[in-house]
């Protein structure tokens, strides 16, 4: 409860006033049947009055005058109830919406702090579901709780006391119905948690499938896989339908049980109460009020049951949200000793670095890497697919942390920098180039949000992106679809390079980021690196020899280890892996000619 109180405390007045307003409505609902019974007994049947009723008769009169007075009192009570109900609904909504907004914000901020390792534990679809559907379930429960937590028990207790004052014998029938209903509630709650947990998991799966299909719709169409994706979605949808039906079956079962129970109780009350009216041991007005109180008691129990069912679903959603909030973030700068230091030069050094994606695995992705890169150097990294190139450079900005060994930038351990200062000094164009919905200008401003139009155009020109941007009708205001699906692969790569150049980083990492660009354009981009980033350290991961052939030094990797470091001529003369890559590509070019 302490965890959730954090989101309640700022809006505590709403959490208090809302239920109090509902209590006002409850008091009115409990009084209404009593007023009606007084009208029947003392206004219509002219029963001999005593106590407060006699005082009213003496004040306003009997018969029709008494009925009018009581009717006015009922109208006034109904108006008070209306304001109580509106107030309860208003403050309940304010409290629940603010609670959910703050919770959603905290979950989102936590996800933003995740390292790549943390993100790998959750699917994208699952995180989206937790941020949206699961938080909404908690919001709905809080809203229902504020409206029902005092209202339902208040009505139950109040109506039960009022029925007890009318006739204690008939009240025993209600007690039996309550016991039966409580047993049903316990059975439903026992089954509800696991079923709602399964339903939320199926929502995760459906969101993942839908997101993959929509994001990669061009790939789906190019491979004519619409039928396959439709079937895949249908399977996920069917799984969610089955899980949803299993969960909703509790509700489906509850409704007829409640209806039967209420009808049987009402019949029993009418039978025994009717005999009491005939035998003059109970008045018609009292029987009418008693039946209304029975309905209120059973309705309040129904509301309590609904509250507990929603509690089951909220607990399932809450557990999933807590999993995100409690996820141990394995990369942070809490223990950094030099948080104010920024990257000034761009020297990089790896000392005996090893890394595993799965910490229990014996196989290492990187093994005992020792490497020195001087500031301002252009370094190429080449090797077979899956040899650890991307993982190696991902450790410089601490997207992953080494399991063994240390990485230094400007002679300072990367763990001693603040994450902001470390990553602010590094520009990275990832292997998977991503653009965001918005304009081209919006995307480029990620590199420097304060950049002028001239600086933006200069960065685009150096990345050879300005050429095609000007062809768009709106130029830099051209809208980019989510993920950059409405531009080509080469255009996307050049925009991502321009974004990184605009950052003016001390270290620039290009992870196979010109693979979709022709060699002539790539040469112009490399030339821009020399002139615009001549003082920056440039690390270029590539599959093509031509991309790194002019580098100050080339690092050759194979199976997570470095097999060679040197210039092109040195490696071509001495390194087997480099020779194989070089001659295979030269052979291909000759065949193409």
What is the compact description of this entry?
By secondary structure, the protein is α/β, with parallel strands linked by helices.
Describe it for me?
This protein is of the alpha/beta class and 593 residues long. 64% of the residues lie in helices and 10% in strands. The protein has helices spanning 2-8, 12-44, 51-60, 64-113, 116-120, 124-148, 151-166, 168-215, 217-222, 226-278, 284-325, 389-394, 419-424, 440-444, 453-462, 466-469, 489-502, 519-532, 545-548, 568-574, 576-592, and strands at 348-355, 366-373, 378-383, 404-409, 412-413, 426-429, 438-439, 479-480, 507-511, 537-541, 553-558, 561-566. Helix 18 links the parallel strand 9 (507-511) and strand 10 (537-541). It is elongated, with a radius of gyration of 36 Å. Mean pLDDT is 84; it is low at 588-593.
Key traits:
elongated, single chain, alpha/beta, disordered C terminus, 593 residues, six-stranded mixed beta sheet
Sequence-ordered SSE layout with sheet pairings:
Layout: H1 2-8, H2 12-44, H3 51-60, H4 64-113, H5 116-120, H6 124-148, H7 151-166, H8 168-215, H9 217-222, H10 226-278, H11 284-325, E1 348-355, E2 366-373, E3 378-383, H12 389-394, E4 404-409, E5 412-413, H13 419-424, E6 426-429, E7 438-439, H14 440-444, H15 453-462, H16 466-469, E8 479-480, H17 489-502, E9 507-511, H18 519-532, E10 537-541, H19 545-548, E11 553-558, E12 561-566, H20 568-574, H21 576-592
Helix pairs in contact: 2-4, 2-7, 2-11, 4-6, 6-8, 6-11, 7-8, 7-11, 8-10, 8-11, 10-11, 15-17, 20-21
